[in-house]
User: Fold these one by one.
Assistant:
Number 1:
Amino acid sequence: MSAAHTRAYRKGVLEAEGFPVSEVSDRLDDPDAVVWIDYCRPTADDLEAVAAQLGLHELAIEDALEPHQRPKVDRYPTHLFVTAQSVALDAARRRLDSTEVDAFVGPRWLVTVRSSDGFATGPLTRRWDAAPELVALGPGYLLHTLLDRIVDDYLATVDSFGDYYDDVSDGIFADTPLGPEHQRQWFEMRRVLVRFTRVVAPLREAASTLAHTPHEAIAPEVVPYFQDLYDHVIVVHEATESLRDLVTSLVEANLSLRDFRQNQVMKKVSSWAAIIAVPTLITGYYGMNVPYPTSGRASGVVVSVLVMVAASTGLYVLFRRRGWL
């Protein structure tokens, strides 16, 4: 069985910490108490032990034990079940590290289940300890703090994506085109962005449900905090959509620049080929074994050289003016 991190607040002030899960019911006998239980990678027995005391729904327990749940809010008669994904972008390795965080929210208790220790709870407890008047509002505020931390990570991830694609933009418009390895990295990062979008988009609906649908587990005083959270999720979602549009624009710009560079190369090759073809034509004419003006005379050499120089110089100047060379 996994060890649970437990805390009990009375009127917003921390009263006990680290007590056994078996004491949760006794703690809740106090009408002013709020209890938080946190599990990291729990077993079915762990959640069954909590469910026996708090009446957790079996479908919610099943969802908490199954990985890769999409962000959502499920409403049950006695509690809410909330699922979210905490993410962290590793731009160097082009990977999105995610941790599923599930929450059972009752009138005076909160049970959180984390799929890994990638999501630390230390910042949450520090915020709760610093705001006892808000913790006294009930587990709804504890849930808000949890989701607000996750959304803050989303904002940081959006900034990391923005910095990465700023560098990509500079590379695209540099004199040296992107090599195959850089383009592969770019493609992998684009795939990571798509995955991030799939995490953010469902959370918008979940945040809207918490902000606009009343439930006894969330005190009316906490609703404005969820409305603010919903606004933040909208900002993240719009920023993510803007990033996707930017990536599409970069792809189109990269293709256009590649075609432009190819045309420039073809112009230079064709121009030099035309310049070289003129002396070849003239020397071929003067190399015929038939009589022609100035044939067999020294003046023929002078004339041919002057014609080659004049024609080649004229073509060079013409191509230069047109920007082909």
Note: The radius of gyration is 35 Å.
Number 2:
Amino acid sequence: MLDNLRAYLMVFFRPTAAFGSLIDRGNWLFAVLAVVVVSMGFQFALMTQSLRGVVDEPSRAPVATDSVWGGSPDSDESDEEDIPAPRNPAVRSWVPLVAGWLFSFSLVDGFSTIVNLLVLYVPASIFTMTLLAYIGSFTVAIRRDFGPLMICTCAAWVASHLPGIALGLVLPNVLGLTPGFIWLVTTIYFGILMVIALRTVFRVGLGPAVGTVSLSWLSLLMSGFLFALLRPFLLLYLIPLGLAAFVALRSAHLSQQRFRRNLELATLNPSDFDAHLQLGLLYLQRRQTGEAVARFQKAIAIAPREPDANYQLGCIAREQGRYAEALAHFEIVVGQDDKFATSEIWREIGATYLGAGMTDEAREALEKFTNRRPFDPEGLYYLGEVFRTTGFPDRGRECYERVLEAVATMPPNRRAETRRWRDLARERLKAR
């Protein structure tokens, strides 16, 4: 439980690392209880702010337009200004505030939040993601990713609504915030955290994550209609089926967590570099680059010429602009296997030389790669960049056109991965 609490607090400062930790160690019961408690606190904060506005509203004395004795409008009585009646001290006391809250608060609303997240929002997010990115079919994705996404969604909801409680209970008197404004701020913050959570769970780009967050919230609009429609069948059918599905999905998530713990245990063996390598790949998929680098470095400390770890370290170094270090790692890989990763090692070497401004070496490496993989859009784009920067625009244009052709002839599941190179090639062709 303490690990879960630390991870929830880490969401405020390092959300990617926090979501990765929750995927590996997150507890479902803790997540459900955290959402229920914070939901009740958030409801209390908004209701208190609303009731405070009513309780603090000053009462005013009635205003007479004419004298009760039929006096003239020009009389002195008619010239008197409206004078607010003195406030009743009892009205300003805490009694109406607490009484209003007790009669308005609904315990069911606190639990409806977690039901809406589990039954509507998380499945809708997975379904939307299957439409925007190639992550497999919905039936496969929900069995594989429901548990991790549910844990991360609960953490994002709790982290986004905790500040709302503070805004509702402490700061409104100072800033004059309305309940609607507080709700809007927490909703936007929840959306931002969900983008990070989706990228961590599904290992997708920013576009599919933002698109999913923009669409999946529509599922919450169906909550009232859905529960009203299915209420007669709720006790007889839906609750048993829902509990069975909940248990099955939780078991799938627990098996993933056990696999992660087994890898951690395997790293205790001082000669087992593969466990560190696999953990590094998991961290890399979740965009936890620092943790991934640490694992890859431990792997090559055990096996200095291990090609997979050196290849990954070289790719990370290239992306971060450390070209000399990247080339050193790639040299080790090529020394072990000239066709490593179906010759993608030469594409990475060519891209590294291109980034370092060594165009002759980049052209040699990329031509070797494109001869072996003539329909790889990324390699063709890099080769086109080499020709463009070295004064061969026609050859560069030919490479860009081959990029478009390669993407157009790919299977649908690969087009989403290579869309970036298609768009970049189109921009180059339009600029010429």
Note: Residues 233 and 239 are 9 Å apart (CA to CA).
Number 3:
Amino acid sequence: MEGKAQRRVPSVFVVSDALGETAELVARAAASQYPRDLEFRRIPRVKDEQAIQSIVKEASEQSAAIIYTFILPHLRDAMRREAEGKGIPTVDVMGPAMEALAQVTGEEPHLEPGRVYKLDEEYFRRVEAVEFSVKSDDGKDPRGLLEADVVLLGISRTSKTPVSLYLAQRCHKVSNVPLVPEVELPKELWSVKRERIVGLTIAPEQLLEIRQERLKVIGLNPTASYADPARILMELEYADEVFRRLGCAVVDVTNRAVEETASQVISIIVRGG
């Protein structure tokens, strides 16, 4: 029993001097051929040998393999040397491919980590927008309200999160704030320009159906207060009051697809409220 208790899931360290997406894709593709679970840990933007030593030391303390993509030769050499010294299996995803291309082209590589992404500025903007929107989802980081391109407000189940992520995929940084009558609004909200705030509302009948279905999915009584018609009307009235106080535009999401709502939000922001 003691041996089983100490048994750990094998780890795959995905290490890169850029984002590490290529190495992780290779690692997960290989792992799909094995029935046993593996724990993946991506470590991006590794820039020096000291960081490599620390990573290898941690990997040596467990059952782990290291899959890496380093553009700079001295980092590839350091990873190979340190891992061999600890007996850790490694895969150099980028090195052999670069060496083969150098032979057929007769040219030296640029040796710029992350160059593939620098060719596409929109990619970076999208990644930044998605990370921002996830971090700022459901009012988790009120400080982000002042940095957001769009601030969405609405009571529960008015599509705030789906619309936020849809907009983020189109490079818009979005914060969304849940409106709950018993919870004070974040003070930062009052400093956001009205033109960047959009309220989301919905017909009470449709919201009732959505909330009842949600309660069923999570195994709760569909007659709970969350799906009480009187409570829903009270929340919608509170939201309308907040929208009036802020002077913001409002989008009715009733029977609207996420992309339709997102399109209307963008139109509001473009024309300035």
Note: Confidence is low (pLDDT under 50) at residues 1-6.
